[in-house]
Every structure is written in C-alpha cells, then in structure tokens.
Design a protein that fits this description.
Blueprint (H helix, E strand, L loop, with lengths): L2 H4 L6 E11 L4 E6 L3 E8 L2 E5 L2 E5 L3 E5 L4 E6 L5 E10 L18 E3 L6 H14 L4 H18 L13 H14 L9 H8 L3 H12 L3 H16 L7 H7 L5 H12 L3 H10 L12 H9 L4
Antiparallel strand pairs: 1-8, 2-7, 3-6, 3-8, 4-5, 4-7, 6-9
Helix pairs in contact: 2-3, 4-5, 4-11
Length: 301
C-alpha cells in the first residue's frame, strides 16, 4: 500500500524536535527522562546507551527507539567523532497503537540496520517533509513513521534513497561555517565572510537564504548556534556560561536573552525541562533543519 493512501487510516502523530548532530569523542548526555518517543540513528561512531537498568552498545548503523517514561544516559565513543539523526514523536492517544504492532513494552530497544534497509529512507523522507512542509505533509509524515515503526519492530525492510543537495552557494557557505566551528566554538560569522565563501554578493546570498530557508544567513547561523546550545545543555558537565561560550555568546546576558526569545525559557529553565522530560518548542528551529543536517555531515578540513 502506498504511503499516501495509508495516511488517512493511521493514528495521528505529533512530531517534536528532530535534527542531525555531531558529538565530540566521549560526549555524555543525561541522565534524562523521555516525555515522548525518540528514534536515534547512529550514522558515524558509536555509543553506549544506558536505559532503565540496561546497557546497550549502539554501533554505526544502530537505531534506538526510546519510549515515554524511560530514563537514560548516552555516552558517545571516546576515540572518534560521532554523528546521529534523531526524531521525537508522540502517537495520538485517542487512536491507540497503530494496527499490527505489539504492546510498546515488547518493542525492541535497538536494531542494527542492514544495507538496503527501508527505515533509513523512511526517516529521510520524514525529515524532508518536516523541513519543507508541503501540502498534506503531516499525513504523509505520519504514514511514513508508522511504516518505519512496523519495519523496526518486526525487523523487515529493503530500499534506499539518495540525498538531495542544497544549492551550491549555500553548500559552500555551510562548509566555511563547519571549518570555523571545527575549532570547538560556534562563533558568529559576518555577512562579508559568508558571501565570500559562497562566491555571491551580500544581496544575492541574502535572497538565496530567504528563498530557501525563510530567513537571512545571519539569522540562520544564530539559530544553528542556539540549536547547538540545546544539545550542550543536555551535558551535566558544562555550566550554562560554558555552553554560551561554546556557542559563540561571550556575554551571558545576551545568551540568556536570545535563548529565551527563541524558545520561551531561559537556558537554565531549558536544562530543567530536559531533566524532567518536558516538551519544548522545537519548531523554532524549523527554518534551519536542512542546513543543520549538512553542517554536521560536512567533513571540515
């Protein structure tokens, strides 16, 4: 059955935060409690996932599925860089579980996806729908997610899908950002520097970013820095001030004010939400999903 024809009969899905991110060797997140479901795919490196008393080694190609109420701690490989995709979602409670799925307590926690699996292209498809939001995107993304759940839980699937590249000028700008940020700090970059890297005039670059993302390049980089802050605030070994510095905010007041204006809570309040498993307005990051994916996938030299 095609995804489009299945979409009318699948349970409603509420999509939360999602994205692509990169982790330095040995980075640790948690302990934290989940308020929703979370698919996390390791695309590079590996991790140790401690969840509800179990310790699971997650290799490259490993996909984990966390459920609401679980408490976990995630430690990334201490020797090499690590990258992953993540997708938070909530199944509509009024419809119960999708047809054909066993009780959630019997779902596997992790599977290693084989070459040619169907789950990876389904997750890619969902990410594109969440990023672009075409007509009926919610129904299509819900159908794709239910298909991914079936394939993951029943260990079935085959297929593949290529990535669609960003416009070359944006790709060049993002590569320049990745090189700068590979030094450890997500520092701001000026419009002149970005336009030179993109090989466009300032005006052309601004028009291209607004056409592709709905915001200019400086606003896009600010959102990327704030996205990194949401990840680093999950690390208990970093103070809020250190998170701000690593994300290019030397002034603590400016960091707190910018973060609060974007997410509706202070960095400290956000850290508490992560600890409690409370939801947060991840839609604030929607404009930069595509370039965020490329930023963490680019191998900076």
């Amino acid at each position: 059955m095609a995804l489009a024809s299945a979409s009318a009969s699948v349970p409603a899905v509420a999509f939360g935060n999602w994205g692509f991110c990169r982790h330095a060797p040995g980075t640790t997140y948690g302990p934290r409690r989940y308020a929703d479901h979370d698919f996390m795919l390791v695309s590079e490196g590996s991790a140790r996932w401690e969840v509800d008393g179990a310790s699971i080694e997650v290799p490259r190609g490993g996909l984990i599925l966390a459920r609401p109420g679980m408490r976990d701690r995630l430690t990334w490989n201490p020797r090499i860089p690590n990258r992953n995709f993540y997708l938070h979602f909530t199944l509509g409670s009024s419809h119960g579980l999708p047809r054909g799925l066993p009780p959630a307590a019997r779902w596997p926690l992790m599977r290693v996806l084989p070459d040619g699996d169907v789950v990876r292209p389904l997750l890619t498809h969902i990410a594109r729908l969440l990023e672009r939001r075409p007509p009926s995107w919610r129904e299509s993304a819900s159908a794709a997610l239910i298909a991914a759940l079936h394939a993951f839980i029943h260990d079935t699937g085959t297929g593949a899908a290529p990535e669609r590249p960003l416009p070359p000028a944006i790709e060049r700008a993002i590569t320049a950002v990745a090189r700068r940020w590979s030094r450890g700090t997500a520092s701001p970059m000026g419009l002149d520097e970005l336009s030179a890297a993109a090989r466009l005039s300032r005006e052309q670059l601004c028009r291209l970013f607004r056409a592709q993302l709905g915001c200019g390049p400086i606003a896009a980089l600010r959102l990327l820095r704030l996205e990194r802050a949401t990840l680093l605030l999950g690390r208990p070994d970093l103070s809020v001030q250190e998170v701000g510095r690593l994300c290019g905010f030397e002034d603590q007041f400016h960091f707190s004010r910018t973060f609060s204006q974007t997410f509706g809570c202070s960095p400290r309040g956000f850290r508490q939400r992560l600890s409690d498993g409370s939801p947060w307005p991840s839609q604030a990051l929607d404009p930069i999903r595509g370039i965020s994916r490329r930023l963490w996938e680019v191998s900076a030299t």
